[in-house]
Design goal:
This is Alanine acetyltransferase. It is an enzyme of class 2 (transferase). One of its GO terms (molecular function) is protein-N-terminal-alanine acetyltransferase activity. Belongs to the acetyltransferase family. RimJ subfamily. There is one protein chain. This protein is of the alpha+beta class. It is about 20% helix and about 45% strand. The protein has one domain (about 10-105): Gcn5-related N-acetyltransferase (GNAT) (Aminopeptidase, 3-Layer(aba) Sandwich). The chain is built from 2 helices and 5 strands. It has a 5-stranded mixed beta sheet, with helices on one face. Strand 4 and strand 5 (about 95-105) form a beta hairpin. The N and C termini lie far apart (about 35 Å).
């Protein structure tokens, strides 16, 4: 592990409480550390924290279809594809399509 290096960033945003108990997930890795499994480890820890500590029920990640590494990451972490949102976000000067991926806290 790289204890003295920042290898990437995760964020949980737009937490909605009440009957929804959901939030959006964002993340990125810094290039020298990409494709080494660190993001998988980090996302697993973040999901555990979101469900066990923050008591969320659902996390959602919206991913551009061409971002194969990101799709691979969420699949490995247990997210399920829920749908496709055309023209979802305005990025790099154009409206971009996104796939909607989510993970639900295990029912007890």
């Amino acid at each position: 592990m790289h204890a003295d290096h920042l290898i990437g960033v995760f964020n949980i945003s737009e937490i909605v409480r009440g009957c929804f108990q959901s939030a959006y997930l964002g993340y990125y890795a810094f290039e020298p550390f990409a494709n080494q499994g660190y993001m998988t480890q980090g996302l697993r820890l973040l999901v555990e924290h979101a469900f066990n500590t923050l008591k969320l029920h659902r996390l959602e990640a919206n991913i551009r279809p061409e971002n194969k590494a990101s799709i691979k990451l969420v699949k490995k972490t247990g997210f399920q594809k829920e749908g496709y949102s055309p023209n979802y976000l305005y990025l790099d000067g154009a409206w971009r399509d996104h796939e909607r991926w989510a993970i639900i806290a295990r029912q007890k």
